């Protein structure tokens, strides 16, 4: 349906190679995601937030806006449902939209084997692996030590990621335009440990102290790197961002009311 709506409006449809193969499209109309982001005026992503996160990392730094169409689950990042797509595209053609720049975050870690760099839109998580034992982490912000955690893990989320894993672990909901990191421990052994909010311009350092517990770094819950005792993960704001398209009249707070079933959903 989406392709026909776009063609009827006199626009050209491009798709990434994997989608082209799945749909049986001609190879001349396909490109990899990075190449596509340089050629297209708008990227349509069909799926849930997981699909949006993957695409955002792959096209990071591109100025091409992304419009997410939710055919998955909760969908905080997917702006419209499949039923709303015809109206949404009509709004796009008429210019009834705004761009939202979402900062990405980066993590760098020098393991015993190599230097690893990862990018995320939502969050980085340093956590235990498959064995259900507490990990011990030392956390610092810039040049200051924050604390040591004995916990299942630590979530360092961007403003965009505040409604993801961090929210489920008791973290605060943060407006996407707030320039902050949210540091949320997962099941900390010290009951007074709570979510901490620091500037997005800070560098958050997480040092692995545990020697007998498998520890991993996860980017957006999708890309994992094995960590060892003594490894330090440095998380900072990326110089790259992604542009999400939002229809005029919609807002982050409207999304909260609808997705979380808060009072006022019918306003």
Describe the structure.
The chain has helices at 2-8, 17-23, 33-39, 49-58, 85-94, 165-168, 252-260, and strands spanning 15-16, 30-31, 43-47, 66-70, 80-81, 97-110, 115-120, 123-128, 135-141, 144-151, 153-157, 180-186, 196-199, 204-208, 215-219, 223-227, 232-247. By secondary structure, it is α+β, with helices and mostly antiparallel strands. The protein folds into 2 domains: 2-96 and 248-260, Rossmann fold (3-Layer(aba) Sandwich), CATH 3.40.50.10330; 104-241, Probable inorganic polyphosphate/atp-NAD kinase, domain 2 (Tumour Suppressor Smad4). It has a 6-stranded antiparallel beta sheet. It is globular, with a radius of gyration of 20 Å.
CATH architectural group of the largest domain: Sandwich
At the first level of CATH, what is the class of the largest domain? Answer: Mainly Beta
Count of folded domains:
2
Q: Give the structural class.
A: alpha+beta
Compute the separation of the termini in Å: 30 Å
Q: Can you count the beta strands?
A: 17
CATH topology of the largest domain: Tumour Suppressor Smad4
What overall form do the CA principal axes indicate?
globular
Order of helices and strands: HEHEHEHEEHEEEEEEHEEEEEEH
Q: Number of helical segments?
A: 7
* Spatial strand order of the main sheet: 7-6-17-14-9-10
CATH superfamily of the largest domain: Probable inorganic polyphosphate/atp-NAD kinase, domain 2
| Beta-strand content bin | 35-45%
Mean pLDDT score: 89
Main beta-sheet strand count, sense and barrel state: 6 strands, antiparallel
Spatial extent as radius of gyration: 20 Å
Low-confidence stretches: none
């Amino acid at each position: 349906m989406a392709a026909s709506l776009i063609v009827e409006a006199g626009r050209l449809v491009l798709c990434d190679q994997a989608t082209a193969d799945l749909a049986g499209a001609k190879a001349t109309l396909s490109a990899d995601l990075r190449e596509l982001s340089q050629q297209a005026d708008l990227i349509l992503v069909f799926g849930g937030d997981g699909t949006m996160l993957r695409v955002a990392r792959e096209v990071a730094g591109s100025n091409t806006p992304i419009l997410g169409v939710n055919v998955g689950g909760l969908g905080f990042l997917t702006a419209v449902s499949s039923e709303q797509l015809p109206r949404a595209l009509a709004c796009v053609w008429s210019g009834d939209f705004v761009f939202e720049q979402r900062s990405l975050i980066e993590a760098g870690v020098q393991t015993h084997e190599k230097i690893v760099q990862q990018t995320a839109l939502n969050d980085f998580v340093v956590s235990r692996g498959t064995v259900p034992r507490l990990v011990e982490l030392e956390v610092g912000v810039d040049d200051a030590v924050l604390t040591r955690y004995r916990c299942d893990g630590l979530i360092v989320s961007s403003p965009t990621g505040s409604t993801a894993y961090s929210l489920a672990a008791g973290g605060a909901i943060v407006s996407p335009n707030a320039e902050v990191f949210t540091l949320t421990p997962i099941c900390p052994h010290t009951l007074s440990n709570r979510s901490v909010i620091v500037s997005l311009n800070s560098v958050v350092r997480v040092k692995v102290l545990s020697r007998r517990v498998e520890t991993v770094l996860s980017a957006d819950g999708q890309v994992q790197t094995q960590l060892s005792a003594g490894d330090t993960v440095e998380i900072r704001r990326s110089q790259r961002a992604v542009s999400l398209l939002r229809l005029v009249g919609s807002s982050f707070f409207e999304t909260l009311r609808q997705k979380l079933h808060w009072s006022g959903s019918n306003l």
